[in-house]
Amino acid sequence: MNNKTVLETANAAISRGDHETFLTFCTDSVQWIFVGDRVLSGKEEVRRYLSETYKIPPKFDVDLMIAERDYVTAVGKISLSENDKWTEYDYCDVWKFENGLMAELKAFVVEK
């Protein structure tokens, strides 16, 4: 499976609310960097974030995905539900892969 397909498959798991399957596509030392916000280090921190933030699965609308070497960049919109209210964000995610697994995310996210 190429890196782009890995990301698409992992995101499909998130859309179904299947956090554990998503995490199988991540390295144990995965790091998520939300630029200007926070950094999550390791699967446990990511698992906790997913369980808190994605109680209701998010809605993705990917406009563009670019794969080059060990990186996949995804640009689009994500909608998150909190307290029965959906909020839409524009995002640009830059994923770094190691040995076919997602190792690092640098996420630029802006509320619409």
CATH class: Alpha Beta
Helix/strand-derived category reads alpha+beta
What's the CATH architecture name? Roll
**How are strands sequenced across the largest beta sheet?**
2-1-6-5-4-3
Query: Quick one: biggest sheet?
Result: 6 strands, mixed
**Percent helix range:** 25-40%
Annotation field: number of helices: 3
- Taken together, the total number of domains comes to 1
Name the beta content range.
over 45%
Unreliable parts? none
What average pLDDT do the residues reach?
97
Determine the CATH topology: Nuclear Transport Factor 2, Chain: A
Name the shape in a single word.
globular
Radius of gyration: 13 Å
Number of strands: 6
SSE arrangement, N to C: HHEEHEEEE
Distance between the termini: 34 Å
Task: Describe the overall structure.
- The chain is of the alpha+beta class and 112 residues long.
- It is built from 3 helices and 6 strands.
- Strands 2-1-6-5-4-3 form a 6-stranded mixed β-sheet.
- Strand 3 and strand 4 (71-82) form a beta hairpin.
- The chain is globular.
- The model has no long low-confidence stretch (mean pLDDT 97).
Summarize the structure.
By secondary structure, the protein is α+β, with helices and mostly antiparallel strands. It is built from three helices and six strands, in the order ααββαββββ.
Overview features:
about 110 residues; Nuclear Transport Factor 2, Chain: A; 6-stranded mixed beta sheet; 3 helices; about 25% helix; isomerase; isomerase activity
Secondary structure elements and pairings:
Elements (H helix, E strand, L loop, with lengths): L2 H13 L3 H6 L1 E9 L3 E4 L1 H11 L5 E10 L2 E12 L2 E14 L2 E11 L1
Parallel strand pairs: 1-6
Antiparallel strand pairs: 1-2, 3-4, 4-5, 5-6
